[in-house]
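Assess the record.
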Amino acid sequence: MRNWLWMSAGDLGRGIGDGTIDPEALCDTYLAAIDANADRDIIFARPTEDRARAEAASAATRARNGTRRGPLDGVPISWKDMFDSAGTATEAGSALLKGRVPVDDAEVLANATAGGAVCLGKTHMSELAFSGLGYNPVTATPPNRHDRALVPGGSSSGAAASLAFGLAPLAIGSDTGGSVRTPAAWNNLVGLKTSWGRVSMRGCVPLAESMDTVGPLCRNVEDAALGLALLEGGRPTDLTGATLKGRRFLVLADYTESSRDAPRAAFEDAVARLEEAGAVIARGEVPAVKTAMDLTPCLFSPEAYAIWRDRIEAAPDLMFDRILQRFRTGRDMDAADVLAAYRTRAAAEREYLRDTAGYDAILLPTVASTAPDRQRLIEDDEYYVTENLLALRNTRVGNVLGLCGLTLPTETAMCGLMALAPPMAEERLLRLGAAMETALA
């Protein structure tokens, strides 16, 4: 049964379907692993044992009766602590929300439950999702799978750790500037950033509503497709026959060349493998990317501060000071500058889609850096700021341009390969990802 802890969600679902895995035994195996793990309390904010067992019992009945609701019926899933769960506290990694207990499930959690998924509990995260590092002294900082001296990446830090340490086969996170893809890359996982507006954010604690998205962290691309379908209440993308032959990719040269040595080298090795598998690789720059990225000071912080201002200023001492500072950078920005930035962003999105229409996807290193040292982040303010911005620099391209994105692990630890596709092109992206995964294996 311990092998179940390292199987993919898809394989577990197939085992339930063919009768070789009992959903209740599977649930108990995961709950026991969570309980026995020394890092339980810094990975899971709140396990939901009673809910999990009740849902597993129902899944077991459906499996016996031949009435399973879908391929992940009976499969356990962890949830970032920003998704409302009825009767269980949802605090988004912040003392500002301590004791907040929602009445209803978030729509994505309700969809997953309707699909038969088993809710294992809520995982820790960066405070209010406003950091790519995963360091949170207010609640907890989950471990990095490679080295406990390093941070795990954020803001979906506990989501990544729950998978990396065998405490969940699938985890649901959010991505506003890279919060699914950065921890996925630093923990050798697959992470899917969905298009803005594709997956419901109803019942999710917001950061910046014009860019907030929901997405799965998982062990392989098939699980990303299954996870997306579960969140939407739809059908998973058919990945059979996916190929790289003749597929055209543009490597963003400026973002690749300016990444640090380890991620750049791992990325280039991965691109060479894609080329060997038949992909057509071009290199260049897209002017709209720079236009959009130059706007980021006017996009994230003003919107986030507008959402959280009243609660923050009522009790600022409850916050981690560096997160408080990030929110407050949006406090004094000129409203005309912010509105102009959103108009320019919309124009950049159109220009980007026009200039990249001849490519199946854009490629760049998922993160420009590897996971930084936790203790140095605590002691060195300048290091914290530099590393936090670098952690989200590459991923943020997808957010400011409204794209969907997929990160795959490379052969080098803590380095990912990221593909970006146009809005609402997840099906295309997942099929490309399946073929890329084969080439990188």
Summary: The two ends are 26 Å apart (CA to CA). The chain has two domains: 2-232, 248-297+333-440. The chain has a mean pLDDT of 98.
